[in-house]
Design brief:
The complex is a heterodimer of chains A (152) and B (746). Chain A is built from six helices and five strands; from the N terminus they run E-E-H-E-E-E-H-H-H-H-H. With 152 residues, chain A is α+β, with helices and mostly antiparallel strands. Chain A has a three-stranded antiparallel beta sheet with strand order 4-3-5. In chain A, strands 1-2 form a two-stranded antiparallel sheet. In chain A, helix 3 crosses helix 6. Chain B folds into three domains: 173 residues, Aldehyde oxidase/xanthine dehydrogenase, molybdopterin binding domain (Aldehyde Oxidoreductase, domain 4, 2-Layer Sandwich); 149 residues, Aldehyde Oxidoreductase, domain 4, CATH 3.30.365.10; 324 residues, Aldehyde Oxidoreductase, domain 4 (2-Layer Sandwich), CATH 3.30.365.10. In chain B, the strands form seven sheets. In chain B, strands 10-11-8-18-15-16-17 form a seven-stranded mixed beta sheet. A five-stranded mixed beta sheet of chain B has the order 13-21-20-19-14, sandwiched between helices. A four-stranded mixed beta sheet of chain B has the order 1-2-3-4. In chain B, helix 16 links the parallel strand 20 and strand 21. Chain B is globular and about 80 Å long. Classes of the chains: A alpha+beta (152), B alpha+beta (746). The interface between A and B is large, with 62 and 67 residues. The complex binds FE2/S2 (inorganic) cluster (2 copies). One FE2/S2 (inorganic) cluster (FES) binds next to loops of chain A.
């Protein structure tokens, strides 16, 4: 099976039922997407497929259609996406384990809604669990990323 | 440590660690400090002055022995050293270090003594220092009980000062300029003519000197790092998906494993049929571990699928199979026989109850799971010569002993590489997953094995927070609260946890009553008893431990009494609080929230005060009745940790602690049916999500005499403040968690 992740094409030979998450993590060594629950309850595994935020634990590799972007493809420590920049400025992370998923979810929210209200944010982000409770900072960072993106 | 003796220079450096420890701990009971682990592997030209600083020609490495499960202590520990050394922020590497007795946790030990944290009496301090000696001998290098900062605050700054002064001495000898005329800046010694010599350049010379001890620590007013917001050293990695956790690591030649364990925690495996599992793709083999089986595969998902397909026959739990019997055991525990300790008996509570109006109430605090977002995992490689372990853990020294116990190696031959933890909340104080990983790897010597729990297995095996019940009476008279008589019954979490480490703890368990016996109120009549229920499910420390139970029962009962007396909830708490630092916390939260002011329609507030780990915390919660249910709108928190070392991280941790407390209080419990936990994943035990999260306003006061950690104390105060707010809004008293069993939240 072939798949494109962060603009690079890969070929894997696995059970087609294997979730994309595990193909990324264990077959391709792309570990930004995290395993939290495996049942679409936590959002730690969130990636983009053709720009849409998707729970990679729920996509069987055999059913994958579209190009995959993981947090590694969104930005890098040296070349950061505006959302990552806002996350760093707002010192959002505690343990940080949920944050790849939070950032991917937030980036996709801002794609479709460049100036979200608190309610919009709550609606878009409530599928992403943060056991450390960084929600107030996530909210603030999304607002500040929105402002940054609007300034261009 | 034998090899040290052949190198005079190295042996000498070990001596310098002794000086560092001696200054920091000053107890004569145990004079010899543990050897400096950094000295063991020093190369020519490398210098170590104490167990926390290592410098060579290329780099400066600071050792942060307290594991980081998200509290940011890696950064704060580094900042304590860097502040005294004048290091540019980030111009150094930080390592978790190796497990060593040199990093024993003084503060964790001090919390084990049965004296109130606010008790500064001679007896209390003597007991603390005796515990310190015990910790030193057994080498507790632990992270827990919000102890990282109390443990580090003085000792790491002293380590930095010693390194700085020794480097200055080296520069003085090289340049001929007297030490008094030398300065330090950005990782270098600066001469009067402006020339600067980098520390790395001085390392080789400094390593031949006797480390300079006894330098006074810098005055807080001259701090440049501490006390101001710092960019956490891990923040970029954690915002770009580049932070590795234990679960992300790859070791060459590694296989993947997952387990299927008896859901009746601790009970045996009777038999199993692995035929179906072995026929599945990617599955390589199935091996037995204590209490279950492990499936080895070429990928984590194959291993998890395989583990679910093994058909196992299980032995029965040694605790009650059904939840109702757990509650019944607590109900039956309020007896003379089960009395663990009478912790307080101030004044004459019976006389107060006779004289006043009496209210009576019973409170129920359920089992709750830890469930940090990174599931339990570990990589272990066993060879005949040694064992290597990669995982994030809060008790590195015990980890070595536990693993050595499984594989038969010497403890010193267990090499531990500590990792960043994707949360813990007490979960990574446990060892069962490490025993299993070691058992598997021991059956496959030479092959590294990565064990990853599925979330379902993690829920099933979680040693939860201990269940508890509070029964109390309070007397009111003349518009005031005059007495409280409270008992709390629960299993001993300390005994349960220690038993899995092969230790038994004599004496009463202060965690049965924490949050209640140690509250600093000066109630004229106060009796507080702890009762120990035996034979219940195994439990473990859960963020703030016993204070979650005792604090809920005590504060809710006090609130009921205050309302019965017709007094104001804040004013009466302040009236009853003679302890100065705690009273100021109450006053601050009143001021922050403008307590007593007009509120919008459909809104009401509650207040609570709970002390844990020496940190007094007061919280005000504001709730609103909406068409969709009760919404938690705002929380104001005031607490006193003596000194706030990083205001931004502090605020983050306080907010997180409040959310943890509220989320579990409204949404979470673990219940047993057929001996197994009924909740198997986050859908049934989710804590708080963003849509339920209030705005949280934080103030850190600095009146306390000791520096305290903030990872846990905000948590226990949140549930009673919420329950008291809901009473103020609806007139309904919530005496049992989780609250969503009784009312609807948005
Ligand atoms: S791991 Fe995919 S949603 Fe939790
Ligand atoms: S930062 Fe730890 S789970 Fe979100």
């Amino acid at each position: 099976m072939k798949l494109t992740v962060n603009d690079t094409e890969h070929e894997v030979d696995v059970d087609p039922a294997m979730p994309l998450l595990w193909v990324l993590r264990d077959e391709l060594g792309i570990t930004g997407p995290k395993y939290g629950c495996g049942i679409a309850q936590c959002g730690a595994c969130t990636v983009h497929i053709d720009g849409q935020a998707v729970r990679s634990c729920q996509v069987a590799i055999g059913d994958l259609v579209g190009d995959v972007t993981t947090i590694e493809g969104l930005g890098t420590p040296d070349l950061r996406h505006a959302v990552q920049e806002a996350w760093i400025e707002g010192q959002v992370a505690q343990c940080g384990y949920c944050q790849s998923g939070q950032i991917m979810q937030a980036a996709s929210l801002l794609e479709t809604n460049p100036a979200p209200t608190d309610d919009d944010i709550d609606r878009a982000m409530s599928g992403n669990l943060c056991r450390c409770g960084t929600y107030p900072r996530i909210r603030a960072a999304i607002h500040s990323a929105a402002a940054k993106l609007q300034e261009g | 440590m034998g090899k040290l003796k052949t190198f005079t220079r190295r042996a000498f450096l070990v001596g310098s660690a002794t000086i560092a420890g001696g200054v920091a701990f000053g107890t004569y009971l145990v004079k010899r400090d543990p050897d400096n682990p950094l000295a063991v592997s020093l190369a020519e030209g490398e210098a170590t002055f104490n167990p926390w600083v290592l410098i060579d020609a290329e780099r400066i490495t600071l050792i942060a022995p307290h594991g980081d499960s998200g509290q940011g202590v890696l950064s704060t520990q580094a900042a304590l050293i860097a502040e005294e050394m004048d290091l540019g922020w980030g111009d150094f590497e930080v390592s978790f270090g190796v497990p060593s007795g040199a990093y024993w946790n003084r503060a964790l030990a001090a919390d084990g003594v049965p004296f109130m944290p606010t008790d500064e009496s001679f007896a209390a301090n003597t007991a603390r220092s005796a515990m310190n000696s015990v910790a030193k001998v057994v080498g507790i290098q632990g992270t827990g009980g919000s102890s990282s900062m109390p443990d580090s605050y003085v000792k790491l700054r002293e380590a930095g000062a010693m390194a700085r002064e020794t480097l200055k001495l080296a520069a003085s000898q090289r340049s001929g300029v007297p030490v008094a005329e030398l300065g330090t800046q950005a990782g270098a010694v600066v001469l009067p003519d402006g020339t600067s010599i980098p520390y790395t350049d001085l390392a080789a010379e400094a390593s031949t000197l006797e480390p300079v001890e006894g330098t006074a620590l810098r005055d807080l007013s001259s701090w440049t790092l501490l006390g101001a917001p710092m960019e956490r050293l891990d923040i970029v990695a954690k915002s770009t998906g580049t932070q590795d956790y234990g679960i992300d690591l790859v070791v060459d030649g590694m296989v993947h494993a997952s387990v299927c364990l008896n859901p009746a925690k601790g009970a045996p495996l009777i038999g199993y049929d692995a035929e179906d599992a072995l026929a599945m793709p990617g599955v390589q083999k199935v091996v037995e571990v204590t209490g279950g089986v492990a499936v080895i595969a070429s990928n984590t998902w194959y291993a998890i699928q395989g583990a679910m397909a093994v058909d196992c026959q299980w032995g029965e739990a040694d605790y009650p199979a059904e939840q109702a019997d757990h509650w019944a055991a607590l109900e039956a525990a309020f007896t003379e026989d089960a009395l663990d300790q009478e912790w307080r008996n101030d004044g004459d509570v019976e006389a107060a109850l006779d004289a006043g109006d009496v209210i009576e109430a019973e409170y129920r605090m359920p089992y709750v799971a830890h469930q940090p977002l990174e599931p339990l995992n570990a990589i272990v490689r066993v060879t005949d010569a040694q064992v290597e372990v990669w995982t994030g853990h809060q008790l590195p020294r015990f980890l070595q002993q536990v693993v050595a116990g499984v594989t038969g190696h010497d403890t010193d031959d267990v090499i531990f590489h500590n990792q960043f933890m994707g949360g813990s909340f007490g979960h990574r104080l446990e060892f069962e997953h490490l025993k299993q990983a070691a058992e598997i790897a021991n059956q496959m010597r030479g092959t590294p094995v990565k064990l990853t729990y599925s979330r379902e297995e993690d829920f099933s095996q979680d040693f939860t927070r201990h269940i508890a019940m509070g029964r109390g009476r309070a007397s009111v008279s003349g518009g005031q609260v005059t007495g409280i008589d409270l008992g709390v019954a629960s299993p001993s979490v300390v005994a349960s946890q220690m038993s899995r480490m092969g230790l038994s703890v004599p004496g009463p368990d202060s965690q049965i009553v924490a949050g209640a016996w140690n509250n600093p109120y000066s109630l004229p009549n106060y009796r507080m008893r702890g009762y120990r229920a035996e034979g219940l499910a195994p439990t473990s420390s859960w963020r703030a431990v016993g204070a979650n139970n005792g604090g809920f029962a005590f504060d809710c009962l006090l609130d009921e009494a205050i309302h019965a007396a017709g007094a104001d909830p804040l004013a009466e708490r302040i009236r009853l609080m003679e302890h100065d630092v705690s009273r100021k916390v109450l006053e601050a939260v009143g001021e922050m929230s403008s307590w007593g002011g007009e509120l919008p329609a459909n809104r009401a507030r509650g207040i609570a005060f709970v002390e844990s780990f020496g940190v007094p915390v007061a919280e005000v919660v504001e709730v609103e009745q909406t068409d969709a249910g009760i919404a938690i709108r705002d929380v104001w928190v005031a607490c006193d940790v003596g000194r706030v070392l990083d205001p931004v991280n502090f605020e983050n941790l306080v907010q997180g602690g409040v959310i943890f407390g509220l989320g579990h209080a409204i949404n979470c419990e673990i219940t047993y049916a057929g001996g197994r936990a009924e909740q198997s994943n986050y859908h049934a035990h989710e804590g708080m999500r963003m849509y339920q999260t209030p705005a949280i306003h934080v103030r850190g006061l600095e009146n306390g005499e000791h520096v305290r950690g903030i990872g846990e104390p905000p948590t226990p105060c949140a549930p009673p403040a919420l329950a008291n707010a809901i009473f103020a809004l609806t007139g309904q008293r919530l005496r049992e968690m989780p609250f969503n069993k009784f009312i609807d939240f948005v």
